[in-house]
C-alpha cells in the first residue's frame, strides 16, 4: 500500500476519501480539512477572543493543538477552560492531563471548580437527584457554565471539540425524540446574541477515527478512561450503528451531515422560523433561557432543598 501523495509506504487507509496516506501526509490532510471547515463556515476572524473548552479527551486536546498552531496565522487570542466537575478520581486524572497539554501547547488556561461556582459537585448533584441517566443534567450544567464564564470574561467565541460522530449522534437522537430545536443547533457555527456567546465547532466534519489517529501520531496524551457515569449511555449504541453504516458504505457519515445542512436544516428553519423561540433572561441568574428560570437554577434549587 503506497501513499497517494509521496509514494512511500502508506500506514493509513481512508476509505471515505479513497486515500492511502503515510503519517506525514495524513497529518497535512487532517489539518487542511479543519482549516477548510474554519474558512467555509467563517468560524474564526482576526482579532477574535476564543475560549476553548478542554475536557482531557482526544477531541478537545486535538482542537487545542490545532488552534494553538493557527493562532498566529489567523491572529486570534486563545485561552483554555476546564471545569473540575468533582467526579472523584476521574476529575483528578483529566485535570492533570489538561494542565500538561496547556503547558505543552503554551496556551493560557483556567481550571474552574464547579463546587466553588455552584456550591455542588456533579457527583453530589447526581446523588441528590437520583437520576439513572445523569449526562443530560451534567451536559446542561457544563453548557451553562461555559457560556456564562465566556461571557463574563469577555470572549466573543467559545470553541468545543465536537466531531462528526458527535453531531450525527445528536442528530439521530433529536430525530427519534422529535426535538427539532436541538437539531437546528447542529452547525459548525452557532451565532450568539447578547449574553449568549457564539459557539464554534472546527472538528464538525472530522470523523472520530481520524482524531484518534492524529492524536496518536502527534503524541497527544489524552485520557482514555471514560467517565464513571457514562456506563449504559445510549450514545454507544447510536455510535455503533453509525460505524456499521460507514463500514457498509464509506462516506455515509459525511453525506448524512451534508444532506442535513443543505436540505433538511433549511427546510426546518423555514418552517419553524415562523414560530421563533423567544429568548428571556433567567430571573435568578440573568443568563439566557426560554423560561422564567433557567434549567441550571432549577437543578440547583432542587439540590438545595435536598
Ligand atoms: S462528564 Fe458528565 Fe460526560 Fe460524565 S456525567 Fe455524562 S456528561 S459522561 S462527557
Ligand atoms: Zn506520503
Ligand atoms: Zn438561571
What is this structure, in a nutshell?
The protein has 306 residues and is an alpha/beta fold.
Strand ordering within the main sheet: 5-4-3-6-8-7
Beta strand count: 10
Which small compounds were modeled alongside the protein?
Fe4 H S5, zinc ion
Strand content: 5-15%
| Radius of gyration computed on alpha carbons | 20 Å
- The arrangement of helices and strands along the chain is EEHEHEHEHHHEHHEEHHHEEH
Rounded to the nearest angstrom, the distance between the terminal CA atoms is: 62 Å
Unreliable residue runs: none
Describe how the helices and strands are arranged:
Blueprint: E1 12-14, E2 19-21, H1 23-40, E3 49-53, H2 58-74, E4 77-84, H3 88-104, E5 108-113, H4 114-118, H5 122-129, H6 135-152, E6 157-159, H7 164-177, H8 180-184, E7 189-190, E8 198-200, H9 208-217, H10 235-248, H11 252-272, E9 280-281, E10 288-289, H12 295-305
Parallel strand pairs: 3-4, 3-6, 4-5, 6-8
Antiparallel strand pairs: 1-2, 7-8, 9-10
The chain binds Fe4 H S5 (Q46) and zinc ion (2 copies).
One zinc ion (ZN) is lined by residues 3, 5-6, 8, 21-22, 24-25.
Amino acid at each position: 500500500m503506497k501513499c497517494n501523495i509521496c509514494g512511500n509506504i502508506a500506514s493509513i487507509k481512508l476509505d471515505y476519501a479513497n486515500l492511502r496516506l503515510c503519517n506525514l501526509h495524513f497529518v497535512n490532510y487532517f489539518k487542511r480539512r479543519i482549516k477548510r471547515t474554519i474558512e467555509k463556515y467563517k468560524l474564526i476572524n482576526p482579532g477574535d477572543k476564543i475560549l476553548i473548552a478542554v475536557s482531557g479527551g482526544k477531541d478537545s486536546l486535538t482542537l487545542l493543538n490545532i488552534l494553538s498552531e493557527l493562532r498566529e496565522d489567523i491572529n486570534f487570542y486563545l485561552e483554555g477552560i476546564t471545569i473540575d466537575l468533582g467526579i472523584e478520581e476521574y476529575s483528578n486524572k483529566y485535570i492533570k492531563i489538561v494542565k500538561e497539554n496547556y503547558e505543552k501547547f503554551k496556551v493560557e488556561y483556567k481550571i474552574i471548580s464547579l463546587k466553588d461556582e455552584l456550591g455542588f459537585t456533579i457527583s453530589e448533584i447526581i446523588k441528590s437527584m437520583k437520576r439513572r441517566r445523569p449526562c443530560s443534567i451534567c451536559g446542561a450544567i457544563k453548557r451553562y457554565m461555559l457560556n456564562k464564564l465566556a461571557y463574563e470574561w469577555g470572549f466573543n467565541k467559545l470553541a468545543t471539540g465536537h466531531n462528526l460522530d458527535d453531531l450525527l449522534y445528536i442528530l439521530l437522537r433529536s430525530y427519534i425524540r422529535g426535538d427539532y430545536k436541538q437539531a437546528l443547533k447542529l452547525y459548525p457555527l452557532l451565532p450568539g446574541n447578547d449574553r449568549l456567546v457564539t459557539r464554534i465547532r472546527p472538528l464538525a466534519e472530522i470523523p472520530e477515527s481520524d482524531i484518534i489517529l492524529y492524536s496518536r501520531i502527534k503524541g497527544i496524551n489524552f485520557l482514555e478512561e471514560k467517565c464513571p457515569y457514562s456506563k449504559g449511555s445510549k450514545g454507544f449504541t447510536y455510535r455503533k450503528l453509525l460505524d456499521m453504516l460507514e463500514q457498509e458504505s464509506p462516506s455515509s457519515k459525511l453525506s448524512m451531515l451534508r444532506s442535513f445542512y443543505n436540505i433538511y436544516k433549511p427546510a426546518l428553519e423555514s418552517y419553524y422560523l415562523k414560530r421563533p423561540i423567544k429568548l428571556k433572561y433567567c430571573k435568578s441568574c440573568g443568563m439566557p433561557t426560554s423560561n422564567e428560570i433557567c434549567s441550571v437554577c432549577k437543578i440547583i434549587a432542587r439540590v438545595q432543598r435536598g
